[in-house]
Amino acid sequence: MTSILMVCLGNICRSPLAHGILQSKLSQDHFYVDSAGTANYHVGDSPDSRSIAVAKSHGIDISNQRGRQFKVSDFDTFDYIYVMDQSNFDNVAKLARNNKDIAKIKLILEVDSSVNNKRVPDPYYGEILDFEHVFSLLDSACEILSKELTNSSR
After folding, report:
1. What predicted TM-score, i.e. pTM, was given to this entire model?
2. Which of 49, 62, 67, 133 has a CB 3.0–4.6 Å from the CB of 11, allowing a cystine?
């Protein structure tokens, strides 16, 4: 089984959306998707209500997810680690034990060549439209990613 981890700062806005979107596009028989945050602010918390609402409006239920902090053992558990921005990349890379760990970390928007800015903006202090924008960015990236992952697992 191929395992994919989505990572943002608090694990309540961006990474839960990425987690839910990608999971909805992949066979759960062949892929495991999870999410985590680099900080411990929201461990055990549900995703932000706006993330839940935006996901739900697109037919995806992320309400059962719970925030957790990224840990070093995630390098052993996950084949791919997708982060939302450079700060997340740097924070995860600081925990890497070797080059093999670092090679697993990628900015999620790097998969989408049509996007110039590879940073998924943090919508936490924004409005529902900011969450919709993040959903749209992640949905496009996850569509590309799901095709790549499905093709590589065959």
Report:
1. 0.97
2. 67
